[in-house]
Design brief:
alpha/beta, 32% helix, 33% strand, binds 1-O-pyrophosphono-5-O-phosphono-alpha-D-ribofuranose, binds uracil
């Protein structure tokens, strides 16, 4: 599958509101949650189904149910947290792991500070969440964490709002089996590793720490 740009009109409309610097933390949070939910609709398109029968008011009815595969959601702290609620609205039984990483402001390299993941990663389809794929360092480090704890590359889907062409290239080269879903491929990165035009610092806008 590789890279999928999820360009549904509702997503593009909401993303434009998020780019607007006049949008404050409450609306930013709500919009991120809504976009994550809309993206989850696309990302779960391939989930396997099995046939079941239920007893309806007028008799038996043939139907479908999502078959046994377990799901896991893994936000990269902090900004990935803003995507969790929207996805859990659609897949409420998924387990949630957390990976804490921040970018060193000088080197732009990811620094780890927390990791707590479900034990049975090898058996799960995993949605790795971070709104921003900039240099690609944080996403690659997070994929590495998951794989070292047993996850299979082909079962990892990385969901972001925005990516830079460089970040996309870095993550794809790092692990071509990880599928990437994004709402936009932006133009470039600035000298401080920010996505252009982007939306600024996602974590700060989400939590009001500007
Ligand atoms: C941001 C963002 C990503 C990372 C992307 O987090 O949420 O995790 O930068 O940059 P990269 O692709 O160049 O690694 P940040 O380090 O600012 O931490 P925060 O979410 O705690 O603010
Ligand atoms: N992290 C952000 O929050 N925004 C960017 O543009 C790049 C990294």
């Amino acid at each position: 599958m590789g890279v999928t740009v999820v360009d549904h009109p509702l997503i593009q409309h909401k993303l434009t509101l998020m780019r607007d610097k006049a949008t404050g933390p409450k609306d930013f949070r709500d919009l991120l949650e809504e976009i994550a939910m809309l993206m989850a609709y696309e990302v779960t398109r391939e989930l396997a189904l099995e046939d079941i029968e239920v007893q309806g008011p007028l008799g038996p009815a043939a139907g479908k149910t999502i078959s046994g595969k377990k799901l896991g959601i893994v936000p990269i702290l902090r900004a990935g947290l803003g995507m969790v609620g929207g996805i859990l609205r659609l897949v409420p039984n998924a387990k949630v792991g957390h990976i804490g990483l921040y970018r060193d402001e000088t080197t732009l390299q990811p620094v780890e500070y927390y990791c707590k993941l479900p034990e049975d990663l090898a058996e799960r389809d995993l949605f790795l969440l971070d709104p921003m794929l900039a240099t690609g360092g944080s996403a690659a480090a997070a994929v590495d964490f998951l794989k070292k704890r047993g996850a299979r590359s082909r079962n990892i889907k990385f969901l972001c709002l925005l990516c830079s062409p460089k970040g996309l290239d870095v993550l794809q080269k790092y692990d071509p089996e990880v599928d990437i879903f994004t709402a936009s491929i932006d133009l470039s990165l600035n000298e401080r590793g920010y996505i252009l035009p982007g939306l600024g610092d996602a974590g700060d806008r989400l939590f009001g720490t500007l």
